[in-house]
From TrEMBL:
<dbReference type="InterPro" id="IPR009057">
    <property type="entry name" value="Homeodomain-like_sf"/>
</dbReference>
<dbReference type="InterPro" id="IPR050109">
    <property type="entry name" value="HTH-type_TetR-like_transc_reg"/>
</dbReference>
<dbReference type="Pfam" id="PF17920">
    <property type="entry name" value="TetR_C_16"/>
</dbReference>
<feature type="domain" description="HTH tetR-type">
    <location>
        <begin position="12"/>
        <end position="72"/>
    </location>
</feature>
<feature type="DNA-binding region" description="H-T-H motif">
    <location>
        <begin position="35"/>
        <end position="54"/>
    </location>
</feature>
<dbReference type="InterPro" id="IPR036271">
    <property type="entry name" value="Tet_transcr_reg_TetR-rel_C_sf"/>
</dbReference>
<keyword id="KW-0238">DNA-binding</keyword>
<dbReference type="Pfam" id="PF00440">
    <property type="entry name" value="TetR_N"/>
</dbReference>
<dbReference type="InterPro" id="IPR001647">
    <property type="entry name" value="HTH_TetR"/>
</dbReference>
<dbReference type="InterPro" id="IPR041678">
    <property type="entry name" value="TetR_C_16"/>
</dbReference>
<protein>
    <submittedName>
        <fullName>TetR family transcriptional regulator</fullName>
    </submittedName>
</protein>
């Protein structure tokens, strides 16, 4: 049975509705205050369906925060442009991907969220940094410094919405942040 009302089709629609509702609830309420019942209500389904598909609130949260930073191909990049490329890329991610904002919001209040945020940046940003540093053993420290800038800007711009940071044009954010990110990756260690 492969028609429009097949069980597979309904299952995909239900899963998508649950994930969308969960993203919104986790982003607005945080991990602790978001409930399976509220998520199910927002998805217009019975709470047992959330448990059926995801097993638990933790399982649902893990599905919601499946994040890929999707870096552009950096292999041919002029190293002097790395700061601009990375800051531009992160701005695009934060602006289009509510999952990252959800993960950041939850990560500052919940240890599971913080662990996942660390995993994303360690598994994806450190290898990107490693390609540009003189000492590959120093890539983790440099990637952490880059993360401090991009996560800090995301927090004040997209989560807390501090006026001056939220009101900066994209070009201004790039102009201010890119030289610092560039320095963190390519400048000699102090």
């Amino acid at each position: 049975m492969t028609g429009p009302d097949s069980p597979r089709r309904r299952s995909d629609v239900t899963r998508s509705a649950i994930l969308e509702a969960a993203r919104e609830r986790f982003a607005s309420d945080g991990y602790e205050r978001a409930t399976v019942r509220a998520i199910a209500h927002a998805a217009d389904i019975d709470p047992s369906m959330v448990m059926r598909y995801y097993g638990s609130k933790e399982g649902l949260f893990a599905a919601v925060i499946d994040v890929e930073l999707d870096f552009p191909d950096l292999s041919e990049l002029d190293p002097d442009r790395l700061g601009v490329v990375l800051v531009t890329h992160f701005l695009e991610l934060w602006e289009r991907d509510t999952v990252l904002r959800t993960l950041l919001r939850v990560g500052v209040t919940n240890e599971s969220g913080a662990d996942r945020l660390r995993q994303v940046f360690t598994s994806q940003l450190v290898p990107a940094a490693r390609a540009f540093v003189d000492d590959p053993a120093d890539a983790e420290r440099r990637a952490a410094l880059v993360a401090s800038q991009v996560l800090g800007m995301a927090l004040v711009r997209y989560v807390l919405k501090f006026g001056p940071a939220a009101d900066l044009s994209r070009e201004d954010v790039i102009s201010w942040l890119a030289p610092t990110v560039q320095r963190y990756i390519t400048a000699p260690a102090p």
